[in-house]
Amino acid sequence: MLDAAQELFLSQSTAAPLDLIATRAGVGRATLFRNFPDRQALFLALLNRSLDRLETEARELRDDPDALLKLLRYCADRIFSNGPLIEYWQAMDPQNPDLQAAVARYIKVFSRPLRQAVATGRCRADLRPPDILLLSSLLSSRAIKRAKNRKALAARSWALTVAAAGLKSKG
Fold first, then answer.
1. Does residue 71 belong to any structural domain of this protein?
2. In this structure, are residues 19 and 11 in contact, taking their beta carbons and an 8 Å threshold?
3. Which terminal residue of the chain has fewer beta carbons within 10 Å of its beta carbon, N or C?
């Protein structure tokens, strides 16, 4: 169901009919609503799945001295390819406890790689885990999503993010 929802939200819009998602997933409407009582629950499930994947990526990069840079690049690639989902999550009520928990998870993923990068001089010494949200905001700018030269703006956004964080690669 999540695969079908993500595919439709990205190919059509975040307003894609939930009935169409159920059909695409090969389940009945009741099954969809039993698992996801509303659109927001479906989007939160997609967000948590994305965080699960990010945590897996972070574990795989655990001993990599460039883990921070690679994790940010991993996120940037997903931000650029999942624009409509990112916009929906950004538009959610920031006081929503589920969203707050997701944001805390996002920041936590970067804590260890950030400490390592600071300790080894691979980023600005004053960079802190909550700063990752600021860097991610730069990468997920609405101006990029709406522009005709989206690819060029995404590349420029990445370059500015790397510069702002003072990121340096070992290799």
1. yes
2. no
3. C
Q: Tally the domains of the chain.
A: 1
Q: What are phi and psi of 82, to 5 degrees?
A: -120, 35
Nearest residue to 91 via CA among 99, 79, 81: 99
AA letter at 137: S
pLDDT digits (tens, 9 = 90+) for 105-123: 999 999 999 999 999 999 9
pLDDT digits (tens, 9 = 90+) for 85-99: 888 888 899 999 999
Q: How big is the CA angle at 137 (ends 164 and 47), to the nearest 5 degrees?
A: 135
Q: What is the pTM of this model?
A: 0.88
Q: What domain range is 128 assigned to?
A: 54-165
* DSSP symbol at 92: S
C-alpha to C-alpha distance for 115 and 110, rounded to whole angstroms: 9
Residue 144's pLDDT band (boundaries 50, 70, 90)? low
CA distance 154 to 140: 9
Give the tokens for residue 133: 């949200």
